[in-house]
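Tokenised fold entry reproduced for absentees:

. . .
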Amino acid sequence: MASPPMKSLGLVLLALFLLSQAAPAYGARSLARGAVDNLVSNLPSWMMPRSLCIPTVSSWVEKHEGRHRCVYENEQGDKAIGVNYNLEDDRSARKSELKTVLADYEKVLKGEQCLNDVQISALLLADTKRKLDEVAETVHKLDDLCCDIQAVLADLDWSMGQKGLDDSDSFLKETENGNWEDAATALRATIWCVSHKKRCDADVAKIEKGCSKGLNLPDFVHTTYSQQ
């Protein structure tokens, strides 16, 4: 029997994909956003609060990774699709998730099948949740941090990998303690920052702003809750 988190992820993936079957291409993204809005407003307590940051995190990562309809080689040399959805990482999970959005893993991997925007958005949603959970293994106070900082941490995990994030001791310490200026300085001092200057500058800018307004949930989430 599927655990609650995996079962919910499957339902999320299926709900987002089904939207694509009834919507014209130009409306796919706005409908996907509406679906996330509805799903977020009904999240169970065990998914709070980091899952509320998924829209902010996924949007931030996509700005850096881009969106690819067909298979491509990512920075690490692995085959990926969508927003750096790594097809060679945990293949069993990838096969299951692609099947949920009615895509064939082997065909996608071989470049014989591409994905539409809603399929990509659904996979990005699942991947973002997975990345945040991965970051939480290293940053134990992740759920106490605002969405913008969670977005930076997930972005770093996406780019440098969990090991690279684990090795950024000084940066992580200052981030968890809320010392934003020192955290930004520590991040700039990493080898990753030297080799990814543009991406680093964007992440550092978010770090420097810190979490002065608390969780800073996405605007549409605030709107949803203010109407209840």
User: Anything to note?
Assistant: DSSP finds twelve helices and three strands in the chain. The mean pLDDT is 82. The longest strand covers residues 68-73. Residues 4-226 form a domain with the Lysozyme fold (CATH 1.10.530.40).
